[in-house]
Amino acid sequence: MAASVLGRRTALFTEAIYFSLNAFAPRICSCGVLQHIASYHAKPFKRNLNEPYIPDKQNEKTPVWQKTAKYDRKLFGRYGSASGINPATLWPSPKQLDEIIAEEKQWHPSLEEMLQNVSAKDKELADKRAAREKLIAANMAKMPQMVANWRRETREAKEKKKEEKAKRDRLLAEARERFGYAMDPRSPKFQDMIKDIEKEEKKKRKLLKRRKREEEQGLGTPGAEGASGTAAS
């Protein structure tokens, strides 16, 4: 059973291959000419390849790029006078010529200009290098003084921080002595106490300054009188 089914399938497959080969195989007609059942007939080429192709600019189907002056130059360069193009129309206008000259000057400078540009760049680099070396030399000359100033500022900052800590500890101790307990430096009561102490210290400084001025005036008056008496005698 299986063998018979396999045999029928093989026969059908062989027949299909034979039919496909026979359909596209060449045949010889009665006149002896070799023919193909399936053949391709290309359309005839409309252009004459023996003559130059000159596009019709009046035709709407002609591409825009074939109507430009650039394409006309290409045609004239390829076919010459056979292109039917007047060479005088291919020259740039005065405006275009000025633009071309300006572009050449910008992107294609002369050898003299290039050498001048190189010399100017070398001089600019040399000036920058000299200025940088001068600045480095000036900073190196200032380095000892800068280091000394830094050390002095660091020392003063440490001393100031130490004095502030000592003042804070003194104020905290005084607050503990006044109120009998440790206080928070951020509390309003502690801040009011600091203001009172500053007012008292300010009064003391003013009093000491006034006493010193009075003592200086008292010491200076007898000497001035003695000097005037000696001059009168």
TrEMBL record:
Protein name: Large ribosomal subunit protein mL64
The entry's keywords: Cell cycle, Coiled coil, Mitochondrion, Nucleus, Ribonucleoprotein, Ribosomal protein
InterPro entries documented for this protein: Ribosomal_mL64, Ribosomal_mL64_sf
Similarity-based family: Belongs to the mitochondrion-specific ribosomal protein mL64 family.
Annotated Pfam families: CR6_interact
Domain of life: Eukaryota
One CC-aspect GO term: nucleus
Known role: Acts as a negative regulator of G1 to S cell cycle phase progression by inhibiting cyclin-dependent kinases. Inhibitory effects are additive with GADD45 proteins but also occur in the absence of GADD45 proteins. Acts as a repressor of the orphan nuclear receptor NR4A1 by inhibiting AB domain-mediated transcriptional activity. May be involved in the hormone-mediated regulation of NR4A1 transcriptional activity. May play a role in mitochondrial protein synthesis.
Region (Disordered): 152-171, 179-233
Cell compartment(s), UniProt: Mitochondrion; Nucleus
Alphabetical list of Gene3D superfamilies matching this protein: Growth arrest and DNA-damage-inducible proteins-interacting protein 1 (6.10.280.120)
Main location: mitochondrion
Biased composition (Basic and acidic residues): 186-201
Feature: compositional bias, Basic residues: 202-212
